[in-house]
């Protein structure tokens, strides 16, 4: 629970920093390469799932007997690293094959949310 909360707060703060860096420090380069929307998508999904980690941490504290919540946390974390990470690398380096692994991160994010639905349906009454 504590680790999930720390990671949620960390990735939220990093999302703000990376977003600000993209909007100010990288704006010209992202515009020239046509990657502004891609970068914004990476930041947006990082923030959504960082907030998801925070929600999970709160749920873990509130419902300690609800087993399976940590799997959603792992999926969100892996999803952030692969989905957003690959898009950041693509935007900064132009390495196009990084975009090919982005959907793998998206699948992890989806599995995290579906697992959360399952855990809630199974454990909370």
List the helices and strands and how they pair.
Blueprint: H1 2-24, H2 27-33, H3 36-62, H4 69-93, H5 98-123
Brief description of this entry?
Helices cover 86% and strands 0% of the residues. It is elongated, with a radius of gyration of 16 Å. It is mainly alpha-helical.
Q: Would you mind describing this structure in some detail?
A:
With 125 residues, the protein is mainly alpha-helical. It has one domain. 86% of the residues lie in helices and 0% in strands. 32% of the residues are buried. The mean pLDDT is 96. It is a multi-pass membrane protein. Keywords: Membrane, Transmembrane, Transmembrane helix. The chain crosses the membrane at residues 46-66, 73-95, 101-121. Belongs to the UPF0382 family.
Radius of gyration: 16 Å
Q: How many separate structural domains?
A: 1
Q: Which word captures the global form?
A: elongated
- Helix and strand pattern: HHHHH
Structural class: mainly alpha
Terminal residue distance: 21 Å
Could you estimate the helical fraction of the residues in percent?
Answer: over 70%
Number of helices: 5
Instruction: Kindly report the average pLDDT value.
Output: 96
Amount of beta strand: under 5%
């Amino acid at each position: 629970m504590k680790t999930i909360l720390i990671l949620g707060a960390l990735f939220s703060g990093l999302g703000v920093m990376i977003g600000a860096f993209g909007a100010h420090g990288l704006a010209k380069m992202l515009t020239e390469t046509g990657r502004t929307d891609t970068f914004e998508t990476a930041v947006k999904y990082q923030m959504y799932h960082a907030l998801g980690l925070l929600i999970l941490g709160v749920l873990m504290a509130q419902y300690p007997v609800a087993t399976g919540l940590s799997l959603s946390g792992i999926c969100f974390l892996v999803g952030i690293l692969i989905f957003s990470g690959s898009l950041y690398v693509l935007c900064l380096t132009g390495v196009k094959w990084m975009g090919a692994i982005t959907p793998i991160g998206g699948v992890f994010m989806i599995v995290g949310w579906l697992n959360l639905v399952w855990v809630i349906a199974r454990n909370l009454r």
